[in-house]
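README: folding subset

This subset contains proteins for which both the sequence and a predicted structure token string are available. Records are stored as plain text. Below is the entry for Permease (368 residues), shown exactly as it appears on disk.
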Amino acid sequence: MTDTVNDLNPSSGGSCCAPKTACCTAPKPKWSWQNFPGKDYLFSTWAIVVGGPLLVLLLDPVQFVAFVTFAVKAFGGTLPYIAFAVALIAWLKASGAEAYVGKAFEGRETQAIVLAALFGGLAPFCSCEVIPFIAGLLAVGAPLSAIMAFWLSSPLIDPPTLLITAGALGWPFAIGKAVFAVALGLFGGFLVSVLLRGGAFANPVKMGAATGGCGCGASPKTGRPVWRFWHEDQRKQKFGAELKANAFFLIKWLALAYVLEAALVTYVPANLIATVVGGDGLGSIVISALVGMPAYLNSYVAPPLLAGLMDQGMSAGAAMAFMIAGAVSSIPAMAAVWSLVKPLVFATYLGLGFAGAVLSGLIFQLFV
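--- output ---
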């Protein structure tokens, strides 16, 4: 007898495994979902990006133009940030400078967290526009604690938002939101720093995210980065590869984010979302934070709507919790964040956003 797989029926008492071979498997049916050639594309990110507008065209053609226009304009507004971040990542990796940038943070984590929280309060980025810069910071090895500080504070406030909030809700509310933005960034940054020392968040970046791959390294002669990388073929190839890979990654996930955002804006009216969070007391603050997290209500639309609800009896604390939770995270932002980091970091980001929103609402309620 040879060492080959035989065709005995197991029910007949024979063995389905021959010596030195793996067990044979039952023959697959002629058609199986696992064999469907398009299954990997049917539920892919691009399928949702393309299929979402097509679904609107089929089911609600009246809204199609507005839906697509909103998504395209929002995505177009982010393209300059994507281009800058992608080019910077590719340049740092091709020149061999990424390791040096990462070392610049060594022993200076506290300063990095403080600066990240303060800069985040001035940066004019929404929760989606900040994603390319987060990808860049992850790529060059910045500490996760400083990244989290910037990540949390950046979408909350910026100079235009400060003025719009002050005009609709008053300067106490606007200044309070600015203070809470920086405070949340500091709180999140230092908490992540403590967790890092305890061994948490090892390798926080997802495999295949817009940060992978080592750079070419410094010059073997001088030990310094080669800033004019285009003089070496290997570095030029590295630049091109990083440029394409990171651009494709960020464009794909941010396109998904803005299609989801367009769906929320089109089919979930902002005044309906805001009405749900009306009320007073601790319960309304918690509900406001819970509803605000997945909802999309940007910092330019929220102040006048919340001002009207506060005139109707909504508490200042609930309004503050809703604004902070909605700015830190929304369904579009969650999709982009999920693409970059591992589940534990993602859960920490959401947990900090929710806790920060509730605490900010409670504190603001006490002092207003």
